[in-house]
Backbone:
């Protein structure tokens, strides 16, 4: 009997093992299916969450249409004078009375985006969207149209506030741009190329982008959420449905989206917005210093163990800084207890500080830590001509930026070789002579330029002469380009 049992047991071992293996495999398959189901459910919830955020935010995003009457001088060629060459005295003498006809007027139209920040019709947008338009029309998500008036605009930050006469409007809440982190999901809503209520999704690629040459006061949020012409003025939204930025600019070699967009931080926009609504203009704080970054060599020279702080290279006479005892060679380490490491951040903070406010600086002077309290004053009028310089850039139809080591490697240039063309407006003066994004400006008016600051300084000469001479490099080839400003 025992022998029979052992024989039967041996015969059943193989089928039993196969059955157990099949059962385990089936269990693993079910486990995989359950895991896949959980992942798909998670993605589904995420997708629906984004859709809900957009659904809540979209009614507060508006389409902004602008119109301006432009006067064009006549010519002997039926008004076809794209380069303004017939305004030259030589041509006027040559063609005589034919050039002295009545100027032609035509309507110039533009468009952008904006978002409602109050139930009674205040709207945030970009200064470059509304500019000096003769008329502004706002179209709501529900199709209603309103004429808008400019409450205030600030070219130096590119923020503008407009208003429509309406009540109980949908409002987009404003978030805290200081709290955002690189890698967080964001949503851009706007009207690219006139395609109203367009939504794109991406992440925050970087924070604190400055020295791009777009505006005077820069602290941009960089995002890969697609931004195109027409998105300007629209909101950049976090996953809580709050606006954390105003979409403003792109980096592009083609004039369209290439994965890099910039938004004005909403905290900066809020500070500007409050002054524009209250006063119709922005009053900026003034410290009265020229500052520069601290690199490794400067850190060693000034006795710093690491590269930190901001170096004061010059102090203006009779300024808040000089009155408080700040000196050339001081290194600002902290401002009101917070570490200072970027000149753009320090400059923006001072500019948005109300005059009369006291700021406590921790500085390094001759190897010793000192504390200096400065009372911020109002920035004197006429101190900055940067706005006028940027007006020349606007006339030319281009945006430039510093040639960083990464960009130099990307485009095949050398660091310090020139200033990179970041954006070219279609149909602009520079576009008409073949200047394109990705090319390099090596000289302006026969002056070599390596930074945006040098570029703007050299370009200032053109305000009087109405002529610009660029040396432009495209890869291994360079050429000179002469332009006449309108």
Residues:
């Amino acid at each position: 009997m025992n022998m029979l049992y052992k024989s039967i047991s041996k015969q059943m071992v193989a089928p039993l093992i196969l059955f157990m293996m099949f059962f385990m495999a089936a269990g693993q398959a079910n486990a995989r299916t359950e895991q896949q189901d959980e992942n798909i459910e998670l993605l589904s919830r995420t997708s629906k969450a984004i859709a809900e955020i957009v659904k809540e935010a979209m009614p507060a995003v508006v389409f902004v249409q602008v119109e301006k009457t432009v006067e064009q001088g006549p010519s002997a060629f039926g008004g076809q004078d794209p380069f303004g060459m017939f305004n030259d005295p030589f041509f006027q003498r040559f063609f005589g009375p034919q050039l002295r006809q009545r100027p032609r007027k035509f309507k110039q139209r533009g468009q952008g985006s904006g978002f409602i920040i109050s139930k009674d019709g205040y709207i945030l947008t970009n200064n470059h969207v509304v500019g000096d338009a003769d008329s502004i029309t706002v179209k709501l998500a529900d199709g209603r149209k309103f004429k808008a008036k400019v409450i205030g605009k600030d070219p130096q930050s590119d923020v503008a506030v407009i208003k429509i006469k309406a009540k109980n409007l949908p409002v987009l809440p404003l978030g805290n741009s200081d709290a955002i982190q690189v890698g967080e999901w964001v949503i851009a809503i706007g009207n690219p190329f006139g395609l109203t209520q367009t939504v794109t999704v991406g992440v925050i690629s970087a924070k604190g982008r400055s020295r791009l040459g777009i505006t005077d006061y820069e602290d941009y949020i960089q995002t890969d959420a697609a931004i195109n012409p027409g998105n300007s003025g629209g909101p950049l939204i976090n996953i809580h449905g709050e606006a954390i930025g105003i979409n403003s600019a792109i980096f592009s070699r083609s004039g369209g989206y290439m994965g890099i967009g910039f938004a004005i931080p909403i905290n900066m926009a809020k500070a500007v917005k409050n002054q524009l609504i209250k006063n119709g203009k922005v009053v900026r704080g003034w410290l009265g210093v020229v500052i520069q970054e601290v690199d490794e060599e400067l850190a060693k020279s000034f006795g710093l163990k690491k590269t930190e702080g901001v170096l004061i290279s010059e102090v203006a006479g009779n300024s808040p800084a000089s009155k408080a005892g700040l000196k050339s060679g001081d290194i600002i380490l902290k401002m009101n207890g917070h570490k200072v490491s970027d000149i753009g951040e320090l400059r923006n903070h001072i500019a948005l500080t109300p005059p009369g406010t006291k700021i406590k600086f921790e500085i390094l002077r001759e190897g010793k830590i000192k504390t200096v309290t400065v009372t911020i004053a109002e920035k004197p009028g006429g101190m900055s001509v940067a706005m006028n310089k940027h007006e020349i850039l606007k006339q030319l139809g281009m945006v430039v930026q510093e040639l960083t080591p990464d960009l130099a490697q990307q485009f095949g240039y050398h660091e310090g070789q020139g200033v990179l063309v970041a954006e070219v407006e279609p149909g602009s003066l520079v576009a008409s002579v073949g200047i394109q994004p990705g090319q390099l400006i090596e000289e302006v008016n026969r002056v070599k330029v390596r930074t945006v600051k040098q570029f703007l300084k050299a370009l200032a000469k053109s305000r009087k002469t109405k002529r610009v001479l660029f040396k432009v490099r495209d890869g291994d080839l360079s050429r000179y380009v002469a332009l006449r400003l309108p």
Observations:
- The chain has four domains: 2-53, 54-279, 285-378, 386-484.
